[in-house]
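Key result, reporting period 2: structure in, sequence out.
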């Protein structure tokens, strides 16, 4: 490989597992090629020319492709990771089709200058609905290996409870689905059956709770794809609702709080409860999730439907919680736009009760982050 480290070893390899990714894999490879020294691919049965597309997109870089059956996601990821290690790469960046690396030069510069002892590194991952840090870069030949037959994640073999702590600044992985039909097929035929089987056979409350939440999210994704069919949409949403209900009383606080919030979110979409009924359920949840801006916003929105004056106070409080979340260096992105949404809600309530000064205040504080026209007509 042309680019080498001071140790005369390639710095970074791109690690991929693929199967019939012709629609999107070229963009994935091209997004990372300027940051990596080689491409290492496990192909699990492509019939659409995916390997040839990868070779063309990676022109100028060494490309190694091996074929093999798909067992589960973790074993496939570990196979591709081992390929990068055999190819001499010191680190491996794992991407999937429909993902693109942004600002790869920052990633490469960080690894070139890193002299610490950590072997797993977080990178911000942006999906259509969220932004979150996730371990995407591993040192090869380290104790970090992928676990989980679905939604695989790296774990330290010596200390499975240890979490990666170092986030690589300035770069981001962006997930943008390009083939909704293929995604829907995978969700229905692969993800949902695997998670359903694991839930049936799992006794550990933490693992069972996490799998139930993941399966509920799968059904929400399927419902989203079926928006044009009201019956199919509601069937999938009710399946999600039942799964969240399954773990709403989990002994694990993290699982319990998340499931209760998501249950109410889906119930809201289905119109199961009116605003007064939502408030009776949101208030105790707010005690449990006092710093969660999503719960605070839901509480304020339903309070505003019952009483504009009380809604204004709840919206002000929700805006404070959202601002604190945005200013938290561990998660500053505000992927749901809750900061400007809470100010919009506060401005609407203030206008409803005739407080022009408060209306202007919240319009000014919210407009900077809001889409154009969101505050139109308020001040």
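The corresponding designed sequence is given below.
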């Amino acid at each position: 490989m042309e680019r080498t480290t001071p140790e005369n070893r390639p710095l970074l390899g791109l690690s991929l597992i693929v199967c019939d990714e012709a629609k999107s894999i070229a963009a994935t490879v091209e997004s990372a090629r300027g940051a990596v020294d080689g491409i290492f691919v496990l192909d699990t049965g492509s019939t659409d020319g995916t390997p040839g597309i990868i070779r063309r997109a990676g022109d100028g870089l060494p490309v190694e492709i091996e074929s093999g059956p798909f067992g589960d996601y973790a074993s496939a990821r570990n196979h591709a990771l081992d390929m990068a290690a055999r190819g001499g790469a010191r680190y491996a960046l794992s991407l999937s089709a429909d993902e693109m690396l942004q600002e790869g030069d920052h990633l490469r510069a960080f690894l070139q200058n890193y002299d610490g002892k950590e072997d797993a590194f977080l990178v911000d991952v942006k999906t259509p609905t969220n932004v979150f840090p996730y371990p995407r870069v591993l040192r090869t030949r380290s104790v970090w290996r992928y676990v989980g037959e679905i939604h695989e994640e790296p774990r330290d073999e010596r200390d499975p409870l240890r979490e990666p702590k170092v986030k690589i600044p300035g770069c981001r992985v962006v997930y943008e689905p390009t083939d909704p039909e293929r995604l829907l097929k995978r969700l229905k035929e692969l993800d949902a059956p695997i998670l359903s089987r694991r839930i049936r056979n799992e006794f550990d409350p933490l693992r069972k709770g996490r799998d139930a939440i993941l399966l509920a999210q799968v059904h929400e994704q399927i419902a989203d794809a079926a928006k044009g069919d009201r019956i199919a949409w509601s069937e999938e949403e009710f399946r999600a609702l039942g799964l969240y209900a399954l773990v709403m009383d989990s002994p694990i606080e993290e699982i319990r709080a998340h499931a209760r919030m998501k249950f109410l979110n889906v119930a809201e979409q289905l119109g199961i409860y009116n605003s007064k009924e939502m408030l009776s359920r949101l208030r105790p949840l707010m005690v449990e999730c006092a710093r969660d801006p999503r719960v605070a916003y839901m509480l304020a929105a339903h309070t505003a439907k019952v009483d504009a004056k009380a809604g204004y106070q709840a919206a002000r409080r929700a805006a404070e919680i959202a601002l604190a979340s945005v200013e938290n260096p561990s998660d500053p992105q505000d992927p749901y736009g809750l900061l400007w949404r809470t100010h919009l809600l506060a401005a609407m309530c203030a206008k409803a009760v005739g407080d022009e000064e408060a209306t202007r205040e919240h319009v000014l504080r919210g407009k900077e982050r809001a889409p154009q026209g969101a505050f139109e007509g308020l001040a």
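The longest helix spans residues 180-201. Residues 1-6 have pLDDT under 50 and may be disordered. This case is discussed further under Risks and Mitigation.
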